[in-house]
Amino acid sequence: MTGWFPPLPNPARRLIAVVLAFWLALAGGLALARARRVTVGVLMPAPFADATAELVQQFNRDHRSVQIAVSRGPLDTEALSDLAISSLLLGDAPYDLLLMDVTWTPKYAAAGWLEPLEPLLGDQALAGMAPGAQAGNAFAGHLWRLPLLADMGLLYWRTDLMAAPPRTTTELETIARGLQRRGAVSWGYVWQGRQYEGLSCVFLEVLRGFGGQWLQHDAGQAPQPALQSPEAIAAANWLSGLVRQGITPRAVATVSEAEALQIFGAGEAAFMRNWPYAWRELTRPGSAVAGRVGVAPLVAVPGEQAAATQGSWGFSLLKGSRHPREAAEVLRWFTSEAVGRQLAIRYGYTPVWTSLLEDPSLEAALPLLPALRQGLLHAELRPLTPVYAQLSDALQRQLSALLSDDQPAALAMARAQRQSALILQAAGETP
Amino acid sequence: MSLLLLAPALLLVGVVFLWPLLRYAWLSGHAASVLTGLVPLANGGANWQRLLSDGRFWQDTLQTLRFAGVSLSLELLLGLALALLLHQPLRQRGAVRAAVLLPWALPTTVMALGWRWLLNDPYGPLNRLIQGLGGSPYGFLSTPATTWLFTVLADVWKSTPFVALLLLAGLQTIPPELEEALLLEGAGPLQRLWRLTLPLLAPYLLLAALFRLAQALGVFDLIQVLTGGGPASSTESLGLYAYLNGMRFLDFGYSATVMLGMFLLVLLLTSGLLLLRRGWQGTLR
Questions:
Q1: Which of A133, A238, A396, B14 makes an SS bond possible with A129, Cβ 3.0 to 4.6 Å?
Q2: β pairing state of B41-42 and A379-380
Q3: pLDDT for A302-334, tens place per residue?
Q4: Nearest residue, CB atoms, A430 vs list B36, B137, B227
Q5: A253–B142: do the CB atoms touch at under 8 Å?
Q6: Which chain A residues are closer than 8 Å to B36 by Cβ?
Q7: A residues 98-117 lying closer than 8 A (beta carbon) to B
Q8: Greatest mean pLDDT range, B6-10, B122-126, B183-187, B238-242
Q9: Which residues pair with A38 in a beta bridge?
Q10: CA-based nearest residue to B226, from B149, B130, B128, B162
Q11: B91 reaches A (C-beta below 8 A)
């Protein structure tokens, strides 16, 4: 037996045997998995995979020829993107469908990783969805994505501390300062100020609330950044002013969604900017603020419309899918009204279909529904361009300096403007 | 024949080291980004020109050097102290050694998350302590001027055990007779350390320094999890910048250029260290 096998000390031989057995088992497992019927692979963040698990099981029971295999990806948006990109770069994606953040669509489409959906689903695939949910799925003349759920920024407020939520920036400051002065809360307003995508989302809402724009689209011209406009500087100034006045804690420079939820959920802040998911966390039994939280549109200056940054998750079909037809069928099922209704009732996911958003029978399960409907009317899309990640990164850097390093708003915005212009210029020049 | 015997090793080095390096060098001469549909188009030295005039690259280079220099020197000092301590005949030596090694055994992302929580403002244990003592919470991770110090602290906490382990191995190769001989001649502890231990430990110190330097210059996961490069990009490392360009911006040509710039930096500094060794050996002889 040991004739061809050089004599090794016993533990080493055992180790080699274990490694060999592992590889054999792995190969065997892969071979078995391959022998099954048409399986549509779907990659999504773990929470979505958990929420849809029962429905997927049902689908697999009801369908013989098509089976859905969901891969649980990381929870963090960027980590999921890294995983997806790594597998896409290897050429042969192991998934057919990918659940994508709204900002990835133009980038992935330009990289040539997505299959246009209109040949498989027709031109009317988005018809019947709320306008705020329709935006961001088509780019460069093709449909690349169908939304599973809608998402938008909301203002959470404490119903026990005030009679009505503020509508304007000044009202918010006044209420917050008053409550802080009488010791009702430590902080007035918490939001996402860490140097990451959330900061861009927060800023876009404030910017729109001040009447400004991120990119300016003049007819017949390439879009230009408008970050140095008086409105943009006023918006940046308002955010840093909140920190200077102590309405927002200095720690906001490290705060992402989870930290904001922690502060507001502990009852230590009067207002919070967050996504709809926070509602379930704040109202679950045992929450320190259960029954004392309301939701309203974000604030704006008088005369301007309050906006909510649109963030949504949707499915795209990856190029190189071996079963595009079956994958499209699965995609259509995932984004159907029936599934949307179930996800809304069971997990509080914001529906994309107008029929569901306007369905009074859903309001019992989803008390937020009127606010969500309202938010989707004024949902603000982040710039739809393959270089969005660069634009957002440039903005985040300057906003972070504004919040953490006392950089003057005019200077921060001038720098963001210059860098954004360079990014767009480079994007226009490259063939 | 000898070449044949070397072949497997050469092949391995070629595949995992030389090939990626050549591929990066090739990529750095191309525009290969989301704007070209990821198709590489030769663009001469445009990426390198951009690198030279990219203020952010140089800022990140300085920040990376600062991080590597400070954490490396602290780790060597503390690692040496720890190794000397662990070399003493302690009771429960095995348990003590295991406890000391624990930080090194933790995955970096896990320990970085732990530090992010420890340093949380205002709920982290450290700020609780400060508040308990009557102070007001400190923004460990929200001040561009000082946040990098806390990334160094986390790195030192994690990597000192590694240095200590290497040095401990070195200490155990020093024959006890030599120490006894010096003791008989009446040398004090400091003298023994300076005249005997340190010179004989030099190769191990150098090895630890090399390993840690290369790792610290390429730091990515710790920073990514702890600060994400913020606030105001004050903790962004070269590794993080290369990652941003590649994975977020899908600009692989420029990302490869940044990586190569980083590689050159590592090469330069590690060869500097190796030259230092030559000088060292000269004096020993």
A1: A133
A2: unpaired
A3: 999 999 999 999 999 999 899 999 999 999 999
A4: B36
A5: yes
A6: 430-431
A7: 107, 110-112
A8: B238-242
A9: A66
A10: B149
A11: no
Distance CA B141, CA A14 (A): 47
Bridge partners, A101 (sequence order):
A313
CA nearest B68: which of B262, B275, B276, B274?
A: B262
pLDDT tens digit string along A363-411? 988 889 999 999 999 999 999 999 999 999 999 999 999 999 888 999 9
Q: Give residue B282's pLDDT band: very low, low, confident or very high (50, 70, 90).
A: low
Q: Does domain B57-284 have CATH number 1.10.3720.10?
A: yes
* DSSP track, A297-321: PPPB-TTS---EEB--EEEEEBTT-
Nearest to residue A329, comparing CAs of A121, A156, A169? A121
d(CA A51, CA A71): 13
Distance between CA atoms of A405 and A412, rounded to whole angstroms? Answer: 11
Does residue B122 have a cis peptide bond before it, meaning omega lies within 30 degrees of 0? Answer: yes
* ipTM for this model: 0.89
Alpha-carbon gap: B4 to the closest alpha carbon of chain A (Å):
20
Cα separation, B116 vs B284, in Å, equals: 45
CA B236 to CA B63: how far, in whole Å?
Answer: 7
Nearest of A23, A26, A60 to residue A42 by alpha carbon: A60
Q: Phi then psi for A213, rounded to 5 degrees?
A: -135, 155
Domain boundaries along the sequence of chain B: 57-284
* Predicted confidence (pLDDT) per residue in B61-80, tens digit: 999 999 999 999 999 999 99
Q: Which residues of chain A carry a pLDDT beneath 50? A: 1-2, 431
Q: Which token pair is A257?
A: 């969604």
- All structural domains of chain A, each given as residue ranges with its CATH number in brackets, are 33-151+311-380 (3.40.190.10), 154-310+384-429 (3.40.190.10)
- Tell me, what DSSP letter sits at residue A219? T
